[in-house]
Amino acid sequence: MCVDQNARGHGKLLIGVSSASDSWLYFRIRVALSQQYPEVQTKAVTGSAVQLVERLMRNDLHAGLIELPIRCRGISVLSISQEPIVFAISERDVLASAKIIRPEQIHRKTLALVSNEADLAHHKIIAALASWGYHPENVQPVLTTSQALDFVAAERCLAAVRASTTRFCLKGITSRPTEGLPMLDAGIAYRRADLTMTIRNFLRVVRQEFSAEREKMKECRLGDQPRLAP
Fold first, then answer.
1. Is there a single domain that holds both residue 106 and residue 160?
2. Span 72-86, mean pLDDT?
3. Calpha distance 142→151 (Å, rounded)
4. What pLDDT shows up at residue 227?
């Protein structure tokens, strides 16, 4: 069970960090929280989003930094960040010199992709690639992004990954952007029925820390809405 928190908002926060999310988001949150509430201790608990949500529902975690979308009864989500999908490719591949990857350039290539067991956005990525015009003949499922990059390095397939993961690319791997693919979201999941003072303070700090990103996400959503005819 989670550590008790008193009415003044002191205590310890156990924050789940999904293996598919950008862990630097957690470090931003931890620094921002420590500046305003130095008496609150935070501890990261890693795992897949599915595992973390299960632990959150069992009251073993206070909140979770996870990829989206997630729809779970009793769980609310505070969206905090978006990032594009990019392709990780071998530097030996002819596509390494391309400025932008287009679907007709990769239709025969094997795709390494984190499975739906480890990435809640898996089906969103598959659907987005199909709408974009890419229907891979072969898909190599993996459990982590690092495994996907290993396959890229060893077998010269390509991998669809979040842009943030490319800072961990192995030697001999590069990344290339695309056009026309949706952004992937990350957010903070928490139990609606367990809003203690510490968690309320935590969520307030998160909103403050990511206010610019959240405003940009709001503007993008409004821009995607269809306009009414005059």
1. yes
2. 95
3. 9
4. 39
